[in-house]
Amino acid sequence: MEAIIIEILNKRAMKGQHGEANMSFWDEKMRGHWNGLKIPPYIGPGPKLGKGNRETCVWKPPKNGWFKINFDGASRGNLGQDGIGCSLHNSDETVVARRAKPIGMETNNRAKSMALVEGLEMCMASGVEKLVVEGDLTIVINGMKKGSILNWRLDALLNRALNLSKAFKKIIFNHIFCEGNFKADQLANMGADGIYID
Asked: pLDDT tens digit string along 174-183?
């Protein structure tokens, strides 16, 4: 029942003048229609955070002997021309490897999931053993921490990422706000613009 309602609301909202990328508009539209439902899907902002958490979020290097991979996806619309970006650093903040790559038409969530897989493969090729993985999409990070994800569109990609993660001696998955993930974001946007960096 809820899936049918979502589909109807999406069709009604698509007739409007607002683009798909304007998520605050879509969120408000959807929230207005869910009041009478018993268990509405999660639509809206994340948990309430202390004032300034997002504004003070900065990228930090990993501990000595560890490496950090930041990954991101960028979309020119959702579906739109997408790109992925990954940036691997050591504890001295030196860039060990980085990648930007266009991936064609995808959703934003799939682009970010593809960036994770690409980043893990890049780390394996670089001989990394202890790895901190940072990304700004909570569904991906939480799925990797739990070892499973309940999203059929991302399932195959994240299962691939889970299998790749087993190749490292130690691996930690952390969520970071987009403000602290800017290095991977820049590379992903370059990929969405058709630029390859390897």
From this structure: 999 988 999 9
